[in-house]
């Protein structure tokens, strides 16, 4: 059994509990943390409605969470904020307590690219305490990087990749709302893009550089652009803090990123993030096209869900991370198959006769 502490009982944390309630019998949540005073002292069942770990009480800090546990848990599942300066001390505290950490923060997927000092501090703390830390989710962590690289295993001499993703973000939590820019006026959105307060999807440059690394593609610059969408009708954000957005507010963003070499496009991504995209004649889809010795094209309709998909990726990372070598770990280096969900294995059943076209099997604990 792998034991875990849940840090962040918001939109993502609730979906992780949904995942674990339906699957993953080898993972157990033994403590929960949230900084929201309205949640502290309540149980996970009270806040989320999920029952498997429903009796666990939410506390306000890591020290309190660990105080009454009979032994140190294996992993802290971190689902609070995305920006390095907001999460650095949370992550270091967990590492210095001797916990492995898997974070949903986009900045944790490949922090060494843009946040070198942050990455070095985490790597040093993890190694000093003999634990591992990584960041993953649906994107980055799957749709923009792991999945394209799995598909690219089936071809060679890759020259170009195109990734298109359109998703419904209804119900996303305050952390994402703040850095993506939903609910703003167009004028305020553009001001915040210009001064860096709004970044949209965080992690496209990291995904593009990791793909280029893995496939030996030469790039020398990455560009990003943001197109916004407003509506002339009210749109429900699905989040209680943002509520129903009046006409004229940002309810959709399409973020385009391009990796170039000497001015020519090598990798391109497009991510359309909308509340209720069907109202704008958009189709939810993940689409990957790889140009190489054998062209590869894959489409997933509807697209992998943003929050629920990320929660599933996180659940699949918990056990492999606990077994990883100490230090800052890339999710690309963890087993593609993720966490083994069962506690038994199948084998040939010797009590029944095998014959051509028929193989009896049974589960062995």
Automatic annotation (TrEMBL):
It holds the Pfam family DAP_DH_C. InterPro entries: DAP_DH_C, NAD(P)-bd_dom_sf. Residues 142-345 form the 2,4-diaminopentanoate dehydrogenase C-terminal domain. This is 2,4-diaminopentanoate dehydrogenase C-terminal domain-containing protein. It comes from Oryzicola mucosus.
